[in-house]
């Protein structure tokens, strides 16, 4: 067994034995820990001629998260830990490559993989500095969690909330661990390439009023790109259980250092009308400039049309989205939710010439048991269909069983 695997297993076993003893100390009086079990089946069916038939795998994930409190004093000290373990249940013959498991040397998937992440933290007033393993989301850089185990960053993250209604965030990242990997690696930019060992970022979100929030963020993937993001989110009450949410986003990206010339402007808007348990959304996204939208490969771009498979962020692409959500709590079934959306893109500039077109359809059905012995047991089915004139045609299904248990 790999040393990291043994270490993660010890952490998981120890969560029920040794850790409660540590919780008696002053440092851990405000600590908490949880164990998430994630069973993930993934099937991607390739529909065009000349492609392989499918990618299909089934795996079990264990996610142990621990967060301490802080020591007393002007500057509080604490520590967090995350232990990850992924185990192959089935990878078939020639069906590897789903992103659930790391590849082996024979073209298949490894039997297991793991990671232990540790984070030190300091707190002064309402400001927190974290150094080490990081998993967070912001408009300029966000960790992905769409597979068996989450993607992680390594670096430093500072959150400052000293001014009412203003949240400032910044930091420096030096490595990324992809979802299906045990190891940290350098950064690269999606579709653009290049290699970088640092991402610097900073910005803030200001709550102008109870219904309006403005955001401004900046990021630099050293020697590849520089990006500035501005956004507005507004919620307009229209009556009892009726509201209109407007989400406006704009980003500009240029080259950094000696990287080749880079030019992208990304604008997007998503409007959601919520009426009781119903929500109807309509969105539009536009790429301008000579290049696609750059972001760290393996992370989540903050785009209104970034969905289950596609991001609709190719050079020159225009795309629109129509979405519907329903919460079955209104029918007496709390915990049951439904979502369906359709995204269509055109005007894509690609190497073969002409205006490329693509579309994607997603459907999510999820249920989380609300009470009883199986409380917090969730099941989610995610279905996607993609058709493209310049990329793969595919059908995809993901079935995810998850269970979260608070350890203390």
Automatic annotation (TrEMBL):
InterPro entries: OM_porin_bac, Porin_dom_sf. The keyword Ligase does not apply. Pfam families: OprD. It comes from the Bacteria. The keyword Disulfide bond does not apply. Signal peptide: none annotated. Keywords: Signal, Transport. Belongs to the outer membrane porin (Opr) (TC 1.B.25) family. PANTHER family: CHITOPORIN. This is OprD family porin. It comes from Metapseudomonas resinovorans (Pseudomonas resinovorans).
């Amino acid at each position: 067994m790999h040393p990291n695997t043994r270490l993660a297993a010890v952490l998981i076993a120890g969560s029920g034995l040794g850790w409660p003893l540590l919780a008696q100390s002053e440092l851990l009086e405000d600590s908490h820990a949880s164990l998430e079990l994630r069973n993930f089946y993934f099937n991607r069916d390739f529909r065009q001629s000349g492609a392989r038939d499918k990618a299909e795998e089934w795996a079990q994930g264990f996610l142990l998260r621990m967060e301490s409190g802080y020591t007393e004093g002007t500057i509080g000290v604490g520590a967090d830990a995350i232990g990850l373990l992924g185990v192959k249940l089935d990878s078939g013959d020639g069906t590897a490559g789903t992103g659930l498991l790391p590849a082996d040397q024979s073209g298949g998937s490894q039997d297991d993989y793991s990671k232990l992440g540790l984070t030190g933290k300091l707190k002064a007033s309402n400001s927190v500095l974290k150094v080490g393993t990081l998993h967070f989301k912001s408009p300029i850089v966000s960790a992905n969690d769409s597979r068996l185990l989450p993607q992680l960053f390594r670096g430093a993250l500072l959150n400052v909330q000293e001014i009412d209604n203003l949240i400032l965030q910044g930091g420096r990242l030096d490595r990324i661990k992809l979802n299906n990997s045990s190891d940290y690696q350098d950064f690269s930019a999606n579709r653009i390439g290049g290699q970088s060992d640092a991402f610097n970022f900073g910005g803030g979100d200001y709550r102008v009023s109870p219904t309006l929030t403005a955001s401004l963020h900046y990021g630099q993937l050293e020697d590849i790109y520089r990006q500035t993001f501005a956004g507005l989110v507004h919620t307009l009450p229209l009556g009892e259980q009726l509201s209109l949410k407007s989400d406006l986003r704009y980003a500009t990206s240029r080259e950094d250092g000696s990287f080749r010339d880079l030019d992208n402007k990304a604008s997007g808007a998503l409007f959601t009308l919520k009426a009781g348990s119903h929500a109807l959304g309509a969105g539009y996204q536009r790429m301008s400039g000579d290049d696609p939208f750059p972001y760290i490969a393996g992370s989540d771009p903050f785009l209104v049309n970034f969905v289950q498979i596609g991001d609709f962020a190719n050079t020159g692409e225009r795309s629109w989205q129509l979405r519907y959500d329903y919460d079955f709590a209104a029918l007496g079934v709390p915990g049951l939710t439904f979502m369906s959306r359709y995204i269509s893109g055109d005007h894509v500039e690609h190497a073969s010439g002409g205006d490329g077109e693509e579309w994607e359809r997603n459907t999510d059905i999820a249920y989380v048991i609300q009470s009883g012995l199986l409380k917090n047991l969730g099941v989610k089915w995610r279905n996607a269909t993609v058709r493209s004139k310049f990329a793969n045609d595919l059908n995809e299904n993901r079935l995810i069983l998850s269970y979260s248990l608070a350890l203390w």
